Amino acid sequence: MGQVNADASRDVAGEPEAVFAALADYAATRPKLLTEHFSDYEVREGGQGEGTVVHWRLQATKKRSRECLFDVTQPADLTLVETDRNSTMVTTWTVAPAGAGRSRVNVNTRWQGAGGVGGFFEKTFAPSGLRKIYDGVLAKLDDIV
Fold it and tell me: What is the pLDDT of residue 131?
C-alpha cells in the first residue's frame, strides 16, 4: 500500500483573498464549481472555511465512486485542508499571488492506496483522472471569481 498523490494548478482571475474567499464558501460558491463527477453535495456544519463539514459523492469513473465527508481546516493563510472522515483522503487547496489581479490555485489530494495489482493501477491512473476532474473545477472557479 503506497501513498497516491494527485495535483492540479491553474492561474485564475482575481486577487488571492477573493479567490480564497470563493473556495472557502462551501455554502454558496463551492456547489457552483462542482463538475458532473460530484453528487449529493451537502454542507452539514458551518459553510465558511474552517469548521465546515461537507459531504459529497465523487464519481471518479463509471464504476468507481467514493462517499466523502470532509472536515475543513485552515492551517495557514490562503490554505484550506479537507480531511475525509471515511478514508485517508486529504485535499489541500492553496492560493498564491500570480501577478496583477491574478492568483495561482494549487490543489493536492493524497491518500493511502490499495496494495497489489489494484494498487499499482490506482497509483498509475487515479492521479491523472483526478487531475482532469480538478481542471474542470478550477476552470469554473476562473469563470466565477
Answer: 87
Distances from the Cα of 50 to the Cα of 45, 78, 96, 98, 145, angstroms: 10, 11, 18, 24, 20
Q: What is the residue whose three cell numbers read 471515511?
A: 86
Helix axes 116-144, 16-24, angle to 10 degrees: 120
Mind giving me the DSSP string for 6-66? Answer: EEEEEEEES-HHHHHHHHHBTTTTHHHH--TTEEEEEEEE--BSTT-EEEEEEE-SSS-EE
Report the pLDDT value the prediction gives residue 97, as an integer from 0 to 100: 97
CB 1 within 8 A of CB 122: no
Q: How many CA atoms lie within 13 A of 133 on its CB side?
A: 20
Beta-strand pair 102-112/79-84: unpaired
Cα–Cα distance for residue pair 126/105, rounded to 1 Å: 20
Contact yes or no for 15/101 (Cβ under 8 A): yes
Q: Using CA atoms, how far apart are residues 114 and 124, in angstroms rounded to an integer?
A: 12
Q: Per the structure block, which three cell numbers stand in for 4?
A: 497516491
